[in-house]
Write a structure and sequence with these properties.
The chain is an alpha/beta fold. It has 2 domains: 134 residues, 3-Layer(aba) Sandwich (Rossmann fold); 152 residues, 3-Layer(aba) Sandwich (Rossmann fold). The chain contains 13 helices and 12 strands. The protein has a 6-stranded parallel β-sheet with strand order 2-1-3-4-5-6. Strands 9-8-7-10-11-12 form a 6-stranded parallel β-sheet, sandwiched between helices.
């Protein structure tokens, strides 16, 4: 009988909302083995993860729940007979080019065959693989810690909080707000080389970068804004078929989400799961004329449907 679930992640689990969803809701005894970013480099982090895994070599009644492809194969190598769950949060082959792209794709398909069960965040992501046995869709829903607060919204104030990257259209957002000085944008996220280049060029007076913020603090700030951006430039499979937690967080908190068109979002809106989402067709439609003309921006309401809450 299982008495312990060991979550394994090659990264900092504090920054991974889905790992924390499990930690905050499962009744089993849970442990976390992760590998936070440091100045030591990837190889040293990998060795550190291996050393931590070997400490559990004699553990019984344990299930390993892996949260990335690398962690899955590490655990499978060290514990070939233990039950292993593979939570496929990303389309991992997208991070590689040419030969490595196809090699990683094969590894992804093999992982589906040899894991105990595979979890994937949407049906659209599942369709990217030929092998789908033992695969279950577990959406990136929201775990509320308290009822949504009623905040006084500041008119024409917008927010983005999350990964600062080209795929999230941060530069395009800054350029758009530069043309509309009566609207304001606040950006939260860990500073990186991409954001440094934007900051070096200078931000318009109506755009403010506030740096990194803890997830719980961000959730407290969000209801104060008119709307939130969750843009994914469709440059690869991860961003063509996004399954962002932000959609469900914002629904619960009563803040509209501005997104690009995608099959997953369209289906959630058509089924009535999302009621506060403003869809832009593509990056060329990123303009205030379409955003401010959307009824979802002004008719937003708290959505506490069971369909958006992690259970």
């Amino acid at each position: 009988m299982v008495n312990t679930v060991v979550h394994v992640y090659f990264g900092d689990h504090h920054r991974h909302p889905i790992v924390n969803n499990y930690l905050n809701t499962l009744s089993y005894r849970q442990l976390v083995i992760d590998s936070k970013k440091s100045n030591k480099g990837r190889f040293s982090r990998l060795l550190g993860l291996v050393r931590l895994l070997f400490k559990h070599k004699k553990d019984k009644n344990v299930v390993f729940h892996t949260h990335d492809l690398l962690s899955f194969y590490l655990v499978k190598t060290i514990f070939p007979l233990k039950p292993i769950l593979f939570d496929s949060h990303e389309v991992y082959r997208c991070y590689f080019g040419r030969f490595l792209y196809y090699l990683v794709y094969i590894l992804e398909e093999m992982a589906t065959c040899i894991c105990s069960y595979k979890f994937i965040p949407s049906v659209d992501r599942a369709r990217l693989y030929k092998i789908n046995k033992k695969t279950f869709v577990v959406e990136n829903l929201f775990v509320p810690k308290h009822p949504p607060c009623v905040a006084t919204k500041k008119q024409n104030t917008f927010v983005y909080g999350g990964l600062l990257s080209e795929q999230r259209c941060i530069r395009e957002l800054v350029q758009m707000f530069e043309k509309i000085p009566s609207c304001f944008l606040t950006i939260y996220g860990q500073k990186n080389s991409y954001m440094n280049k934007i900051l070096k060029m200078g931000l318009p007076v109506n755009v403010e970068y506030k740096g990194e913020i803890a997830q719980d603090e961000l959730l407290e700030e969000l209801p104060k804004y008119t709307a939130s951006f969750a843009l994914y430039k469709p440059v690869d499979l991860n961003n063509k078929f996004p399954a962002p937690t932000k959609l469900f967080e914002n629904e619960y908190l009563g803040i509209p989400t501005i997104v690009f068109d995608s099959p997953y979002v369209n289906r959630l809106i058509a089924s009535g799961v999302l009621v506060n989402t403003c869809i832009l067709g593509k990056i060329d439609d990123l303009s205030f004329k379409k955003i401010l003309g959307s009824k979802e921006i002004y008719n937003c309401r708290h959505n506490q449907s069971k369909s958006i809450i992690w259970n």
